[in-house]
Design a protein that fits this description.
Helices cover 25% and strands 41% of the residues. The radius of gyration is 17 Å and the shape is globular. It is α+β, with helices and mostly antiparallel strands.
Length: 155
């Protein structure tokens, strides 16, 4: 995807996703975001009503994500840029740090994401995500322990 990184907004979008992967906080995160940014997550499996977040709520959501996940990874698969708009195809995975509903700590969540970003003054002013999560299955007895590196119980 080398030619895609030639567009300055695509470069910024890729760096932004890398920062979010690291649970960037404070100035590291807000350096990518316009003060008037709006992040919209369309309805999906984890957020059936979707979400709309302004900058303070977005920063808080990253903090909450750090508590919910031990790690996460975004891989930008493709990008298209036109003027101040960038469309991304992204794969995401995250490992649960704590149980979530019927899901056990240690389970890996995966999603295929279409993200549409708009830029103003070189910063993201709007982001709309369409997250398609892979089927979530409760961990079978002992499966989460194995995924977390434990053989499933005492030896």
């Amino acid at each position: 995807m080398p030619e895609l990184h030639e567009h300055p907004n695509v470069r910024t979008a890729v760096r932004y996703h890398r920062a979010v992967s690291r649970f960037a906080a404070g100035e590291e995160l807000t350096a990518f975001l316009h003060p008037d940014t709006v992040h919209t997550q369309l309805p999906n499996l984890l957020f059936p009503d979707g979400t709309v977040r302004r900058l303070p709520e977005l920063v808080d959501a990253v903090r909450q994500g750090r508590a919910l996940l031990t790690d996460q990874h975004f891989e930008v698969m493709d990008a298209v840029a036109a003027g101040d708009r960038v469309a991304l195809e992204v794969t995401w995975s995250g490992t649960l740090a704590v149980p979530l509903g019927d899901l056990a700590a240690g389970q890996v969540l995966r999603a295929h994401v279409a993200a549409f970003l708009e830029f103003r003054d070189g910063k993201i002013i709007a982001q709309r995500n369409y997250d398609c999560y892979e089927r979530l299955r409760p961990a079978a007895s002992g499966e989460a322990d194995r995924q977390a590196g434990n053989a499933g119980g005492p030896l």
